[in-house]
Amino acid sequence: MEVQLELALPSGSGKGSDPNQDCDQRKKRSFEEAFMGVKKKEVDDLHETLPLLIWDGNEEKKQQFDGELLEQKHIPKLAISNNRNAEMEDNFVVVGWPPVKSWRRQFCHQISHRECTTNYVNVENNGGGGGGGRGSNSMYVKVKMEGVGITRKLNLSVHRSYHSLTAKLIAMFGICEENVEKYKLTYQDKEGHWLLARDVPWETFIHSVQRLKLQKMATTFYS
Amino acid sequence: MAYSFPEEVLEHVFSFLSSDKDRNSVSLVCKSWYEIERWCRRRIFVGNCYAVSPGIVIRRFPEVRAVEMKGKPHFADFNLVPEGWGGYVYPWIAAMSAAYPLLEEIKLKRMVVTDECLELISKSFKNFKVLVLSSCEGFTTDGLASIAANCRHLRELDLRESEVEDLSGHWLSHFPDNCTSLVSLNMSCLGSEVSFSALERLVARSPNLRTLRLNRAVPLEKLANLIRRAPQLVELGTGAYSAEIRSDILLNLTEAFSACKQLKGLSGFWDVVPAYLPAMYSVCSGITSLNLSYATIQSFDLVKLVTQCRNLQRLWVLDYIEDSGLEALASSCKDLQELRVFPSDPFGAEPNVSLTEQGLVSVSKGCPKLQSVLYFCRQMSNAALISIAKNRPKMVRFRLCIIEPRAPDYLTLEPLDAGFGAIVENCKELRRLSLSGLLTDRVFKYIGTHAKKLEMLSIAFAGDSDLGLHHVLSGCESLRKLEIRDCPFGDKALLANAAKLETMRSLWMSSCSVSYGACKLLGQKMPRLNVEVIDERGPPDSRPDSCPVERLYVYRTVAGRRIDMPGFVWTMDDEDSGLRFS
Fold first, then answer.
1. First-to-final CA distance of chain A
2. A211-216 and A183-188 as β-strands: parallel, antiparallel, unpaired?
3. Residue numbers of A between 9 and 68 with CB closer than 8 Å to B
4. Among candidates B466, B418, B473, B478, which has minimal Cα distance to B442?
């Protein structure tokens, strides 16, 4: 990428230097001159704005080509589909979308849980209405690991013990052996409280878990 | 000619100026006006707590009585800013406790406030009156207890949407018996139950109480008793609005409400039992602001309530209201200025209610004063947007969230460029805009060309190339805040418009294509900007310069680089080429 530095006047004064315009602008001393004892020339230097790259008119044409390149690069392209299950397959969820505040997110979670339990048909060996059990056998819950930006989703219905769940989490987040000790598994129950997963029997856990969080030991957390 | 008027006269004249903009202009006239003005400025607003330092503020304005400040970027509301990023208010409180003993008001938004801060506030400012903590975090109910116990002249305690570690409801009982100054109390974000008798007594001894927002834990059966003691209330937030259906409760409540002749605003309404809604009917005609955004009741019940509020100006509601409900709203509430429709099931794959673009179109047609919109829906068309734009050219805030990212016009399958283009072209007073749906660079060309008064723009999953960002940065003259996520915007547009960033409060870009190299360059060349790279993958130096950063936050500042950054934030500047050794 070529970088061309060019001194340009502040946007207000338009293109080029119209002497009359400059004159008007410089009639009054600026703040720096008046109060900070800065000489006029220094003031001009201060105010010089520098486009670090010159936008040339051919950009539009070039961009069509560059645009394609960019698209291939780094942005995870979300398939336009109404079927969330397609995304769930990848265990990948978009953080912070739709843009609802945490209060509202928790609140919506409670509403959907209520809707679930009224419609829910009990399937043998599977837990209660976790986030995502819309009449299907899967029980997807969100999992966040402290220090990692992306929230993942995990199907709890395929696990029967903390052992298998932990193994899955280690694999999912790529936690190396020495770091396993540093994290504790916490979960949010139906009332919105955050609890230590291993403090309760598996059955209790699986029936009330709404979401999971891997927290670093020795940190206090907000609810 | 500065000596033609005595200072006292000038000071008196300046005291009529409340707007910061005016006071800033006044202070530029000449040295003596600058001096007089700075000694008599009583209120300051700091839009970004890192744009200036406590020392600089205190040095210039020695007699401040009210401080308003904001911390984290707006996208922190949606979990895009990792915990521990910053926004700590403690250094400010510490500095002000020494410099402003007469401070009366502190209003904070998105800042980290600790119990220590609250205790310091309660002990340092003898005349403290107003504490508003909006979307703040970091404190517990113990901190609230300090405020309640020590602020003898407290008028306002407003905790709107803050995350408070709720240790117990006991804090409320710390208000001394001789505290009678309360005008506004908003505890709606708290979880635990407070002592009801303490609350009752507090309300009873506060004759000036105008705003009371309860939390969910205050049961409906007890609401009547509370309201009865405060018939002068102007704004009421209920607790849970449900109880066993009993006629005595309903009667009590109805009577209590009917005594509130000044009630203008209602909120709360968690867990609504529709049978209790008629208790409020007597006050509906006076209601101008109604927040039903937690009321999980069906359209039918919502409509019955809303259509009685003929003077309604502001309505916040869940999408349970549906298109039919919005149509009824449009026919009944001709004074409506602000509408916010929130999603009841934002993460569901399929729509759970019949709310589409039609609802918004109806309201835009029927409500001539509509100027502020926040609308979540699952489908949109260019035709609908064009219609809205033509109906409401005086729109000031337009925030549309189509839940599926990159969703096209559902009728034509085209991008929504034309629709949003119509919005910016027709609504010449537009100050705030949030985009969604399938959008190409073209929409940004429209925005850059027409949105000359736009101050805040939020973009997500939109655009094709740097050209999009370039249009916005080079065209939007009034732009102050720009926040972008998941767009293919990279280095070129950012660097070509570097100067623009000094005219704005801040720029946020996450999951875009801005390279580390470009961030370094920007930081090196623009000393009056803080260019912060937020990356949880580890030091950006450990990756090639061409690698895009996870998140970028750029803001203008006179305070230099931050000194309180966590391990995942790096400031790009010329001191050490961007690498900060921790």
1. 46
2. antiparallel
3. 10-11, 31, 34-35, 49-55, 59-60, 63-64, 66-67
4. B418
Q: Is the pLDDT of residue B36 over 50?
A: yes
Which site among A97, A109, A113, A140 would you substitute to test the B interface, given the most B Cβ atoms closer than 10 Å to its Cβ?
A97
Query: To the nearest whole angstrom, how far is the Cα of B205 from the nearest Cα of chain A?
Result: 32
Q: Under an 8 A CB cutoff, do B163 and A112 touch? A: no
Return the number of other C-beta atoms located less than 10 Å from residue B567's C-beta. Answer: 12
Strands (DSSP E) contained in B424-568 are 432-434, 456-460, 481-485, 506-510, 529-534, 551-556
The sign of the torsion formed by the CA atoms of B33, B36, B39, B43 equals: negative
Neighbours of B192 (CB within 10 A): 14
Average of pLDDT values for A184-197?
86
- How many residues does this entry show for chain A? 223
Contact B342 A100 (CB under 8 A): yes
Write phi, then psi, for A220 (nearest 5 degrees): -90, 145
Q: Using one digit for the tens of pLDDT, what is the confidence trace for B358-389?
A: 999 999 999 999 999 999 999 999 999 999 99
pLDDT tens-digit profile of A144-153?
888 877 778 7
- Residues with Cβ within 8 Å of B423's Cβ and at least 6 positions away in sequence, in order, are B385, B388, B389, B395, B398, B430, B433
Q: Which residues pair with B533 in a beta bridge?
A: B552, B570
Q: Which residue has the tokens 């950009």?
A: A59
CA distance B353 to B215: 28
Q: What is the mean pLDDT of chain B?
A: 95
For chain B, the farthest-separated pair of C-alpha atoms sits apart, in whole angstroms, at: 76
Q: Would the pTM count as exceeding 0.95?
A: no
Q: What would the pLDDT profile of B232-281 be if each residue is shown by its tens digit?
A: 999 999 999 999 999 999 999 999 999 999 999 999 999 899 999 999 99
Q: Which of B319, B432, B436 is nearest to A97 (CA)?
A: B436
CB neighbours (10 Å) of residue B287?
A: 22
Q: For A157-183, b where at least 16 C-beta lie within 10 A, e where not — what string?
A: bebeeeeebbebbbeebebeeeeeeeb
Inter-chain residue contact B348 with A50, CB threshold 8 Å: no
**Local confidence band at A41 (pLDDT 50, 70, 90 cut-offs):** low
Q: Flag whether pLDDT at A108 surpasses 90.
A: no
* E-strand stretches of B148-206: 156-158, 163-165, 184-186
Structure tokens at A222: 């907000």
Write down the ipTM of this complex: 0.89
* Euclidean distance between CA atoms A135 and A147, whole angstroms: 33
- Chain A closest CA to B403's CA: distance in Å? 6
Confidence of residue A119 (pLDDT cuts 50, 70, 90): very low
Q: Do B570 and B539 contact (CB within 8 A), yes or no?
A: yes
Alpha-carbon gap, residue B62 to B60, rounded angstroms: 6
| Residue linked to tokens 């399938």 | B438
Residue A19, preceding peptide bond in cis (omega within 30° of 0): no
Phi-psi region of A210 (alpha: psi -120 to 50; beta: other; left: phi over 0): alpha
| Residues of A whose CB is below 8 A from B491 | 1, 53
* Residue B227 pLDDT > 70: yes
Nearest to B88 by CA among B154, B25, B139: B139
| Pair B239, B271: CB distance under 8 Å | no
Sheet holding A211-216, edge to edge: A152-155, A140-145, A211-216, A183-188, A194-196
E strand spans, B490-568: 506-510, 529-534, 551-556
In whole angstroms, what is the distance from residue A6 CA to residue A173 CA? 47
Confidence at residue A74, expressed as pLDDT on a 0 to 100 scale:
37
Give the tokens for residue B549: 């950063």
